Amino acid sequence: MVQKAKILLVDDRPENLLALEAILSALDQTLVRASSGEEALKALLTDDFAVILLDVQMPGMDGFETAAHIKRRERTRDIPIIFLTAINHGPHHTFRGYAAGAVDYISKPFDPWVLRAKVSVFVELYMKNCQLREQAALLRLQLEGGGKAAVGEAQEPTGLLAELSARLAAVEEQAEALSKQLDDDSADAAAVATAAHLERKLTGLRRALDALEPGAEAGAPTLPSQN
């Protein structure tokens, strides 16, 4: 069973959280509420999230301050943040949002279809990265086991390599389709950059896997970094 991605919704007004849940429910992912910046930071201590939707204007710790805390933490600094705001103070206010680490800055009222489409892109990227980490873990198991590893029941090295290759091929196919989807002028620059980074990691993992095939030149393959 494929695990669902978690999306963090941060807004001090319950009606806004309810509206976001209604918009994003079609994505069939896990939606987590936070009614303040402090509550959001607490949720981020224990759970991994694909993307954060963060209201700018909140009492106490506002969206900018919350984002600053998120970006300072090593565990959470790479989570995409989409700012949502009812304030329109011009380009300077928007620039402050991007400077705080946001990948997008959307003014209310916003188009529900556009918001859902933007969020879905980051959910897909997150899921592909999760699949990539799984393949890397299996490959490390193969290397550390000296050619044998247990996946359910013990398998011969060639059988495990074939399974790894098939799983990786499926991820590569999905990543290629996602890159084509992002290959237009309207795509978010952050999403395009993340997709390119994912493809580079997939290429590195494929090379490492190919190096284990019978007849490949001797030498320890280098696994791609998971950062």
From TrEMBL:
Domain spans labelled Response regulatory: 6-123
InterPro entries for this protein: Bact_response_regulator, CheY-like_superfamily, Sig_transdc_resp-reg_receiver
SMART domains: REC
Protein name: Response regulator
SUPFAM superfamilies listed in its UniProt record: CheY-like
Top-level taxonomic group: Bacteria
Location of 4-aspartylphosphate modifications: 55
UniProt KW keywords: Coiled coil, Phosphoprotein
Coiled coil: 161-188
Record flagged with keyword NADP: no
One of the Pfam families matching this protein, by short name: Response_reg
Gene3D superfamilies: 3.40.50.2300
